Amino acid sequence: MTRSVFLVRHGQASFGKADYDQLSPIGRQQARALGESFQRREWRPDRILCGSMKRHQQTVAEIMAGAQLDDLEVDSDPAWNELDHVEVITGYKPAYRNMLVLKADMVRTLRPRAAFEDMFVNAILRWAGGEHDEDYRETFAAFTDRVTRALDGLVAATQEGERTLVVSSIGVIAWVVTRLLGGQTDPTWRELSMAGYNTGVTRLQVDKSGPHLLTFNEISHLEIARLLTHR
User: Fold this and answer.
1) What tens digit of pLDDT does each residue of 90-125 get?
2) Whole-model pTM?
3) Cα 220 from Cα 217, distance rounded (Å)
4) Rounded to a whole number, what is the largest CA-CA distance in the chain?
5) In the chain, which ranges are continuous DSSP H helix?
């Protein structure tokens, strides 16, 4: 009997705020909408996991409220946490340890969001390239090893017929998908990590041969256009 895993990216976080690791009002609506869609489809997980970040836990809370899953417990595991985006950015440009410097540079471009995206892609490429590992507490290799171990542990612990819901982040989910597709860091992982919508659902099926990818980044629960966000 097969097992299923739903990997969910957290709702929109608080981009540009002092504490990024909080859901925005839209992020809460996205997660609640996903929970309500689970209830309408009568899909109910047997187990819920999430990373230890606040945006993960807040997303789980909204999903559970929308799906009326108050009787389930949630296991939190930092192995499902996102890469440290602050460390990735400051490794690329140490001056960006000062958020005011970062914001000023972005504003000067007159296209701050697009400029940030461009900068972040370059920062990610530097981190993932492996040539500057001494600048990071968690290298890209260490990050992918952590995520791989988390997935392997989940698969090993999943019982026959069990449905597991995991709330994590797009970098983590993108690596799971990259690994299952046999792709490469660049461009596969990078492109997937930039493509995911907030609360997008990635479905895996697990059988005797291991996990298999069924879908990536499902967003049918986000019926209102304003709820479609990447960041």
Assistant:
1) 999 999 999 889 989 999 998 988 898 899 999 999
2) 0.92
3) 9
4) 57
5) 25-40, 54-67, 85-92, 99-108, 112-129, 140-157, 170-181, 190-195
